[in-house]
Every structure is written in C-alpha cells, then in structure tokens.
Write a structure and sequence with these properties.
The protein is mostly helical. The chain is 74% helix and 1% strand.
Length: 368
C-alpha cells in the first residue's frame, strides 16, 4: 500500500466510523460511541494529510481526536501509577518556550527598526483588544468566577507561536508576525499580571508579584536559554531546529489532553457556551486586529498579519499559568478549548487569504 492509498483508506475508515457514531447517537447510545467517534477524528486527520487543501487542518483535527479521547477516557490523562500528569504541564511549556527561543536569533529583533509602525500597532492591538474582549465576554456570561478569569487570562496572553506559520500560509508579513510574537511573549511576564489585576481582580484574587515570577520561570528563562543555545551552537543546532516543532506539537497535544481530562465535568456542563465564547474571542480578535491596522493606514499584507497575531493566543502558555495558580481544571479550561478552535479558524482564514494575492503599491503602503 502506497502513501496515497493509505490516506484514502483512512478517509474510508473515518467515514464508516462517523456513520456508526451518528447511528449510536440517534439511538441514545452516545456514551458508548467513544471508540467510533475517536476513530473518526484520528482517521480523518490522517486522511487530510493526503489532501493538499486540507493538509493544514490535519493537526487541528488530531487535537480534536485527543480531546475526545480525554473526555471519554479521562483516567489515563489524570494519573499514572500515582503520578499526576498535571505536573508535566509546566515543564512542557518551558520546553516549548525553549524551542521558541532556539528558533529565533538576535537578528530577528532587527525587524523592529525596519517597520516600527507595524510592530507598534501589532503589539498595542494585541494587548488592548484581546484583554478587553476577554473581560466583556466573561462579564456577559454567567460562568463561575474561575472560568471567567480563565477567559480573561486567555485574552491577556501573548500571540501564539503558530501565528508566523499561518502568516506564511496567508501570504502575509512573516517577519512582522515573528517580531510581534517575540515582543508580546517577552512583555507577557510584566503585562499579564497587571492586566489580570485590572480585568480579573473582580473574579479571583490576583497575586501580581507571584504571577510575574511564575511567568519569568516558564517564559523568560526558557526563551533566554533557547536564544543562548542558538547563538552558541549556530549551524550545529540544525538537528534542534528540525526536532523542536515535533516536540512542541507533542507537548501541545499532551497539555490539551491533561486539561480536558482534569476539567471534564465542567466541560460537559458548560462546554457549548464556553466553546462559543472562545470562538467569539478568536474571531473578533481577527476582525478588530485587521481593522485596527487599516485605521492606522498599514498595508493589506501587514493588516492580515496583525489580524492573525491579534486573534491567535498562546493557549499553551495560559495552561502553564493556570497550573502555577493551582487552578488547571477551571482557569485552564478556556485555553484547552481555544487550541483546536484557533487552529481551525486560522487554517480557514489563511487558506482564504492565500487565494487572494496582495497587490502592494505606494498607495496601499504609506510607509513605502
């Protein structure tokens, strides 16, 4: 069986599993449909790998499959031989942040001097729009205080490290995406505790200094170590650059599964409403980020980039912060749901924009 036949077989298996799942749901046997529903999603993610237009959605669908697995069978993701898997979240986040640092060079920050207006707009839009949206959406819904705080925390988080990938797919400004992502991540230890005190102080008690120290441990130190390794090893670190994306994907997958399992009861009770709120946060972030850039008279290419870096949140980092706070099953819920949603919406948006080439000219780009 060659690769194409394997992908087609996966799609057939996915279709059969979906039909069985729907029949079981129709017969009120949804609790027993787990194996078939999980097979449907995992096989579909494999099948998507063989379809160029849908290949970018493969990892997102796989994450959905892992999420379904954790909801149906939470025990293996909560504890193994007396060891609580939640203890892995912080080191996994540190490993992902290390990978982020090792993929960057000090030269990346030179982009600051090349297009300062776009960078400043991107950073301000992200930390102004998203925390405000998180607060408004949390206030507008009747969630528990800790889940509401998790929505706000998600809004206060830095740009997702995958924003540069989707900027590339959308034919946007990748250098700008990398720079804004880097800056929002480096500013996060200072701004997140202050923004949380401002927006979430009415929901839960926020210890600003303790949160700052936690952010330094899980963001600043690992990124600094990655930058240092990249500087010292230079071309000898090619193996690291090749493997870290896979390590990061594994880390994100395991983090989502652990949080889904830990917050299973809450998700089953309020899952749909929380999903809609997180989806609204994500989509409004794209929309407002895009128009903020347009109002500042940035180019279409930069506007697309700022839309993505505004709407895409570092959900994995939020999970790490929730773990530091000791509230992974409540404050961490919004971030667990955000990962798959964000991957899906960013894939669709970047695919749409990739089919709409940007025509740059002096009128479109006042900075030219």
């Amino acid at each position: 069986m060659n690769k194409n036949q394997f992908y087609k077989a996966a799609l057939v298996l996915s279709g059969i599993s979906l039909i069985v799942t729907l029949v079981m749901i129709f017969n009120d046997s949804i609790a027993s449909a787990g194996p078939f529903f999980i097979t449907f999603l995992v096989a579909l993610s494999i099948g998507f790998r063989g379809i160029p237009l849908l290949k970018g959605l493969a990892f997102t669908v796989f994450i959905l499959g892992i999420s379904a697995t954790a909801l149906y069978y939470p025990a293996p993701f909560i504890e193994i031989n007396g060891f609580e898997l939640a203890g892995l979240i912080t080191p996994l986040i540190q490993l992902i942040m290390f990978g982020t640092g090792s993929s960057m060079g000090f030269k990346d920050f030179v982009e600051l001097s090349k297009s300062p207006k776009s960078v400043i707009v991107g950073v301000i839009a992200h930390f102004l729009i998203m925390p405000s949206l998180g607060f408004l959406l949390a206030k507008a819904n009747d969630f528990s205080p800790e889940i509401s705080a998790g929505i706000i925390l998600l809004g206060c988080s830095p740009t997702s490290v995958t924003a540069s990938l989707f900027s590339y797919l959308a034919k946007a400004n990748v250098a700008l995406a990398i720079t804004v992502t880097s800056l929002t991540t480096l500013l996060a230890p200072l701004l997140i505790p202050l923004l949380m005190k401002l927006f979430a102080g009415g929901f839960i008690e926020i210890d600003v200094l303790n949160m700052m120290w936690g952010m330094i441990k899980i963001v600043v130190l690992p990124i600094a170590a990655g930058l240092l390794i990249n500087k010292l090893l230079s071309t000898r670190a090619q193996w690291l650059h090749a493997w870290m994306p896979f390590v990061s994907m594994f880390g994100v997958t395991l983090i989502v599964a652990i949080i889904m399992a830990a917050g299973r009861d809450s998700i089953l009770n309020i899952g749909l409403m929380l999903l809609l709120v997180v989806l609204a946060l994500n989509l409004l972030g794209y929309l407002l980020g895009y128009w903020a850039a347009k109002l500042c008279r940035l180019s279409e290419r930069d506007a697309r980039t700022i839309a993505l870096v505004t709407g895409m949140q570092n959900a994995g980092l939020v999970s790490g912060i929730a773990k530091v706070m000791g509230k992974i099953a409540t404050v961490g819920l919004a971030s667990a749901i955000c990962g798959p949603i964000m991957g899906l919406t960013a894939s669709v948006l970047s695919s749409y924009w990739s089919g709409s080439p940007v025509k740059e000219d002096r009128k479109d780009n006042p900075e030219a």
